Amino acid sequence: MAKNRKLSNEELHRKTVDEYKMVEKFPIVVVLDNVRSLNNIGSVFRTSDALMVERVALCGICGKPPHPEIHRTALGAENSVLWEYFDKTEMAIEKLRGEGYRIISFEQTEHSVNLVDYMPMPGVKYALVFGNELRGVGQDIVDLSDECVEIPQFGTKHSFNISITAAIVLWDFFAKLKKH
Q: pLDDT for 43-70, tens place per residue?
């Protein structure tokens, strides 16, 4: 007999897509600034579903669902998480700011705040911007941000894959906001 039996899918009480769409979400919009990898986009959808993100904004060169490569990593989350597309990231930022979102870019800048120290505030709506795999968040978007936050890193690369960054950040926000 197993000491620690895995739960079955039935025991996990997963929501249907229709049930998921009706549940209140965290007031977080994920903004993808010219992310080129369809696998990364799919992974962000999957993480966004798992952590009840309100929606995803795909900007610039980002691929859009339906697409088999997005589906491969999203595993259907592209159908449960609301999303919208913008030709330019600036357009998404302008719309979200008009809707009262605080714009946070995840980038290493002169005045970025360490994610460990960053405390999201309950009741505040956040637009979290994640950048291109090679260039990061564009300087023009950094300039439009209310603030920048970075994940502390200690190796030689000084960057995480965008889907890993999004997962770390979304879990961190979820954990900190769930306490309130």
A: 999 999 999 999 999 999 999 999 999 9
Distance CA 10, CA 174 (A): 25
The pLDDT mean for the chain works out to 97
DSSP secondary structure of 70-91 = HHHHHTTHHHHSEEEEESSHHH
Radius of gyration (Cα) for the chain, nearest Å? Answer: 16
What's the gap between Cα 55 and its chain centre? 9
* Rounded-to-5 percentages of helix, strand, coil across the chain: 35, 20, 45
Q: Helix 38-50 and helix 162-178: axis angle, to 10°?
A: 10
Confidence of residue 2 (pLDDT cuts 50, 70, 90): confident
Q: What Cα–Cα distance (Å) separates residue 120 from each residue in 28, 31, 73, 126?
A: 11, 17, 28, 9
Fold observed for domain 24-178 = Alpha/beta knot (3.40.1280)
Domain parsing of the chain, residue ranges:
24-178
Do the Cβ atoms of 21 and 52 come closer than 8 Å?
Answer: no
Contact 124, 27 (CB under 8 A): yes
